[in-house]
Amino acid sequence: MTASERRLCRLLEKLISHPQVLFCDDNGQYKSAADAAPKLVVPAQLAKFAIDRGLLRVCGVGQVEPCEGTKSWVKRFKCKSADKNSNINAFAAQHLQMEEREIFDEAGEMVLTQVNVATSPLLRLFRQKNELGERFLSPVEFAAGQKLRQDYAASAMGRMSCSNWVRVGLASGAASADSCFYDGNAGRMDARKRVMDALQAVGPVLDRVLFSTLIREQGLSAQEQDRHWPKSSSKIVLKIALSRLADHYGLSVSHEQI
Amino acid sequence: MNNQVKFRRHADEARARLSRALVSFAFNVEEDELCAATRRNARVAFGRQIAMYLAHVAFELSLSRVAFAFGRDRTTVSHACHLIEDRRDDPEFDQKLDDMEQLLRDAPEPAGPEQ
């Protein structure tokens, strides 16, 4: 990714937001018409690069305009340049909504990482802001919900377990301390216990809301219809459930201390 | 060195001077500092990077020609161009550079060296 490509990206972005025909001058540069705004100048080399790759369409003698390929190229390029270290293909990255989030790692510590926002129902809810820019869910409630989801995934309750190939090659009966770790059964049992404890701590009705929303990924409006609740009420119930879950995990206390 | 190359280098140096003068005007940096052989402070270095970038973009000079005109290495100019392009994500800064770029494009051709 060169500075020239960055420059072309910037110029094309302006061209997309203010569509106009560019005219070739004597030096091979493509310029805006005299009455057009903003005034754009695409140097000869960049213009040739763009026309060769289908980023600009020739629409007459010495005239070019943006086309369908322009917008998608700019989008892909911006995805690529936003995270240079990412190994995600630019074509895939344009369909993801990557954002930075704090999550719990295996050691139980909060770490900053890139996540695809479009995957989790809780993430979608967490992203929503009101007119004042305030989030409906607090970061602590969001973290509590994510922890429950992670525990559930780790507990393997949601999937059928097939053949376990992890122990293949190990001597039979070699039940060392490590084998327990490799087996993962203890970890799963712990995770399962954490999920059950959390749901129990939350309470009888709230645990169903949490389970439906976070684990079954059922929509909030569908839940309202099922339970004959008034519209938009399950959002509030979910918030209460999450705050109680955060209390159970001890997150809200640690947050206040900070 | 034949006359054509001599003329071209003279013109490039004149363009570099104009670019530095414009940065000095727009960003309140001493022009002497921009010409300095050493880096100086961050503000001056940033101003010099803008001047090099503008010379590259507005006058369509190659990186090597800009490097020669500013008495710097070609890779230094390349680094400056990358850096300034990244900074242009800021709309206010972008607009300012757009205006400066336009001003330099409208500048007349530099005169040849004295015979």
Protein described:
The complex is a heterodimer of chains A (about 260) and B (about 120). With about 260 residues, chain A is an alpha+beta fold. Chain A has helices at about 5-15, 45-50, 70-80, 90-95, 120-125, 140-155, 175-185, 185-200, 205-215, 220-225, 235-250, 250-255; strands at about 20-25, 30, 40, 55-60, 65, 100-105, 110-115. Chain A folds into two domains: about 5-90, Orthogonal Bundle (Arc Repressor Mutant, subunit A); about 100-255, no CATH class. Chain A contains twelve helices and seven strands. In chain A, a hairpin with a 2-residue loop joins β4 and β5. Chain B starts with a helix and ends in a 10-residue tail after the last helix. Chain B has six helices and no strands. Chain B is globular, with a radius of gyration of 14 Å. Classes of the chains: A alpha+beta (about 260), B mainly alpha (about 120). The interface between A and B is small, with 10 and 13 residues.
From the structure above, extract its key features.
heterodimer; A: 258 residues; alpha+beta; Arc Repressor Mutant, subunit A; five-stranded antiparallel beta sheet; two-stranded antiparallel ribbon; 7 strands; 53% helix; B: 115 residues; mainly alpha; Chromosomal Replication Initiator Protein Dnaa, Chain: A; 6 helices; 73% helix
